[in-house]
Design a protein that fits this description.
It is built from 3 helices and 2 strands. The chain is mainly alpha-helical and 126 residues long. 13% of the residues are buried.
Length: 126
């Protein structure tokens, strides 16, 4: 386990309290909130999407690399994880939405072609 919690126990062996970093249990939700805020700001201010994706990808790689190689444990590592995950989500959200939109267009187009073929076949038969 890379970042085990510190557990304090009394003389009877009962757990008194468990100390963890402030962000330890909230990494994903914090990263998701930051990512959604960034995607909304991208939609509102409409910057160059390719540069935004490139920048977010670079920040993701650097933050996750630093969290693995430079920082062993603690608040700074959790902060780097949040930064890396939020930037990864900023890259993933538009890609997922784009792929979903293209898939929906393809399915809709195929259904339209199927309906037209069915109508032509039923019309030609007496």
């Amino acid at each position: 386990m890379p970042n085990p919690p510190v557990i304090e126990a009394d003389s009877d062996g009962r757990v008194v309290r468990e100390r963890r970093s402030l962000l330890a249990g909230r990494r994903i939700i914090t990263a998701a909130v930051i990512a959604v805020a960034e995607v909304i700001s991208i939609i509102v201010w409409d910057p160059n999407l390719i540069l935004v994706m490139l920048g977010a990808s670079v920040v993701t790689v650097l933050a996750l690399w630093a969290s693995f190689k430079l920082v062993k444990r603690g608040f700074l590592r959790d902060l780097l994880w949040v930064i890396g995950l939020s930037q990864a989500m900023v890259v993933a959200i538009p890609l997922i939405l784009g792929v979903s939109f293209i898939a929906a267009l393809l399915v809709g187009g195929l259904l339209l072609v199927g309906v037209v073929l069915y109508l032509f076949r039923s019309r030609s038969s007496p």
